[in-house]
Amino acid sequence: MPLSVRNQIPGTVKEVKLGAVMAEIIVDVGGGNQFVSAITKDAAEDLSLKAGDQVTVLVKSTSVMIQK
Amino acid sequence: MPLSVRNQIPGTVKEVKLGAVMAEIIVDVGGGNQFVSAITKDAAEDLSLKAGDQVTVLVKSTSVMIQK
Amino acid sequence: MPLSVRNQIPGTVKEVKLGAVMAEIIVDVGGGNQFVSAITKDAAEDLSLKAGDQVTVLVKSTSVMIQK
Amino acid sequence: MPLSVRNQIPGTVKEVKLGAVMAEIIVDVGGGNQFVSAITKDAAEDLSLKAGDQVTVLVKSTSVMIQK
Amino acid sequence: MPLSVRNQIPGTVKEVKLGAVMAEIIVDVGGGNQFVSAITKDAAEDLSLKAGDQVTVLVKSTSVMIQK
Amino acid sequence: MPLSVRNQIPGTVKEVKLGAVMAEIIVDVGGGNQFVSAITKDAAEDLSLKAGDQVTVLVKSTSVMIQK
Questions:
Q1: With contacts defined as CB-CB under 8 Å, which chain A residues touch C44?
Q2: To probe the interface with F, which of D6, D7, D18, D22 has the most F CB atoms within 10 Å?
Q3: ipTM for this model
Q4: Beta strands across the sheet bearing D64-67
């Protein structure tokens, strides 16, 4: 089902770090770029996220800033 | 000066759409991917954003979601 | 494909207001509650959002605050 | 004092998980729905959040996404 | 009723700009500093925001970045 | 390089709390006000944030709410 989220970038999970409440997911999106995502540990576990997973990184456009 | 923002992707402004209060900035980040940013019109005008500008797209890690 | 987003509430679109850059979507989620979403006009048009549509409202847990 | 925040849903705290820096609060909002909130541990402690508390869940409209 | 929001700064509304969907509120918080807030036009109208109003600016800690 | 971020407040780091994944940074911005920022532990370590550091607190205008 399509999402209103404008930014959807495919990638591969490189690393998953679990804390008590939060988790940090590092995703290789190709071209030498990677994305860092901070989600709840529960979300990471529900998706069974692990290195090597094919995922899509999602970012709402109101969360995107510009530096010139 | 370095930023705490984990996600910093270089790109080229492709289009600037100005509304009354908000502006939408579309940035080509290479590899066939683009980013959409919704910022205030004032911010777009202060940076004089226009097609062709070299910019960096910034996203805080707590704003990044994962779809698997 | 499952999402890391913890809050997913089904509802029915009640109203769509389009501005130059942004759009406001009002979703009836039942029980007398409604949700207001501010997304880009482009997103609203890409999803062809209109009153009566069955949708799911999504909110990342890091965006949820508590008042006691 | 009224808030600009458009989405305000009453509920009952179901669970509080404390990490070193962050806390996860699960709120039952009725109708079989629950909300997950990630706030700082300091905020959870300042509000003395615990299961059974009557609270209001708050979400800014710019943080609300739509899936169709 | 207290909020989980960690950052609460009192100020005086300096300017209100209304668009079709969004509004920009500029708040003088003293010491030569001002805050810009982008909220929905509906929220601005519901609060009857106008220059001179005494308000509190609210920012969730997960939305605060650091530059060093 | 200038940023689209509208809210940039100079201050001094007062305290850094490190968790497993996240970090909480408390910044004194003068006038008796302080800011709390929740960023990843990696970001805090990359910036070598410690009490006494001169920093700038950054907040995107779409993350700013108003209470009246």
A1: 4
A2: D22
A3: 0.97
A4: C33-40, C22-30, C7-18, C54-59, D64-67
